[in-house]
Amino acid sequence: MANFSQPHICHCLTRLSTSRRNSIVTTDGNRKKTGEEFVGDVLSLASGLLDLGLRNSDIVAICAFNSDWYLVWLLAVAFVGAIVAPLNYRWSFEEAKSAMLSVKPVLLVSDESCGFWGLDFQSDAIPSLKWHVFLNSFSSGFEKASNIITTEMLRRNGIRSPTLDYTWAPEGAALICFTSGTTGKPKGVLISHSALIVQSLAKVAIVGYCEDDVYLHTTPLCHIGGLSSAMAMLMVGASHVLIRKFEAKLALEVIERHCVTSLITVPTMMGDLISLTRADKTSKGRQTVKRILNGGGSLPVGLIKDASEVFPRAKLLSAYGMTESCSSLTFVTFYDPTSETPGQHLHSYDVTKSRPVNQPQGVCVGKPAPHVELKICSNGSSDIGKILTRGPHAMLRYCDHNSLKTLDNANKVWLDTGDIGCIDNTGNLWLVGRTNNRIKSGGENVHPEEVEAILTQHPGVASVLVLGIPDPRLTEIVVACIKLAQGWQWSDKKCNSHSENELLLCSQTLQNHCRERNLSGFKVPKLFIVWRKPFPLTTTGKIRRDGIRREVISHLQCLPYFHLS
């Protein structure tokens, strides 16, 4: 017998069908749905899935652009006790195939976003697949296939029983979310209903999501950031505005048209939004935005200041987390106009006042959410060490059977985040680096994030990436790839602060900048490379260090005076 006291993401359906019954809860282009209509679609699709033969613990893969029907599918699959496995529509067929072979879905839901996969799925490429459902209408070439249907066919044919109620998959699992795979193949992370609900409660408590919000889906629903915020907004009964994928111009138009109050960004998105608004002084739509949650990396101080000017009424926060922790572990407020005093800007960003005397350079990512437990595992000689976490937010396990890792929270097992950091005397978490990004130079450990945090404090540096490049003597040398701030120029010769051109930058100036901020000598970059094109990014907005490292090595090997091991 089902225990209805257990957490389930479909709890939100009761609220949507009652207090939001006649209110618009989803807007997708010209299509609008009230709470009653949205819940009706979920229940009829759930019934259709049961009639089709979908059973408890079955896995349903979804590869599609953001849409209202995507949200319906997420809840309908969970309703019948099956598990959703969102796939990234930006993947190649081989990447998607690899992911599906690891989780063995019985049903694939797709739209035109992955139409280029073509007839591959009519073969035996994925032996576990029984059905292929198109989110909307048929795509060309599939009309006669017996195992391919549409969402509308399922929803229309579903016979809703008066006793139909939601159920749970084994382990209380709700979805399989894939990691972004910056250093290898994406891994499937099994996430529970409990994790999604406590994450939603954290966002409600800290970010301030509420029923009055109009939430713009800017990030893909295949990523944990987009999924967790969507669940939080469903929980409070907010209104959802969906665009297929993020485009800065479209996003700004939609913000103005629908009076959007909340959205999430990554640094590249925020940069694009700011660049466009600078050219359009007449737009007033951004005045409605009250909450912006940033993820996928910290925002540089300059970008925070720009964001506070572009979205003057918005509380600007940043979250640190990972797929394995069901999104956000900690939150930090950069800017809050409701508590600002006249003439004072970004007062809440100055968290550095809390750092102890021996605090290393790094990035402050704030304090943990109420349900999150953190600790630092060090070697005893330093306060810096591995960042570990435990609690109901932690993943159940990986679904890649080659790297199976089960978490037993009852036995108090800690999840290793893969990050290095420390906790200061006021409870703020500081990130020093990633375990797998660590540079070994002359027998010393260098965390690139620590060096990057210092270099970005220079006004001439817009963004930077620090890498370890093979060296026969030191094992690796520290190299910094920098993007110049607007108006600044690079000099291959020595320059100084008294130059006639004050916006001139050179290697020695940046090295002196690092030393003045007490960066140890072995951490100061030996070489600077001016990067004049966008850094390659993952689909979650994280910089692909491995790709840049290969490109830098290839570039340096062409220089006659530079030899690599």
Major beta sheet, strand line-up: 2-1-11-10-12-13-14-15-16-21-20-18-17
Number of strands: 28
Instruction: Work out the helicity level.
Output: 25-40%
Low-confidence stretches: 342-360, 401-411, 561-565
Can you tell me the overall shape? globular
The main β sheet shows up as: 13 strands, mixed
Global structural class: alpha/beta
The total of helices stands at 13
Structure description:
This protein is an alpha/beta fold and 565 residues long. The protein is built from 13 helices and 28 strands. The strands form 6 sheets. The chain has a 13-stranded mixed sheet with strand order 2-1-11-10-12-13-14-15-16-21-20-18-17, with helices on both faces. Strands 4-3-5-6-7 form a 5-stranded parallel sheet. Strand 22 and strand 23 form a beta hairpin. Helix 2 (35-52) crosses helix 5 (151-157) and helix 9 (267-278) crosses helix 10. The longest helix has 18 residues, at 35-52. It is globular, with a radius of gyration of 25 Å. The protein starts with 11 loop residues before the first helix and ends in an 8-residue tail after the last helix. The relative contact order is 0.08. The model is unreliable at 342-360, 401-411 and 561-565 (pLDDT under 50).
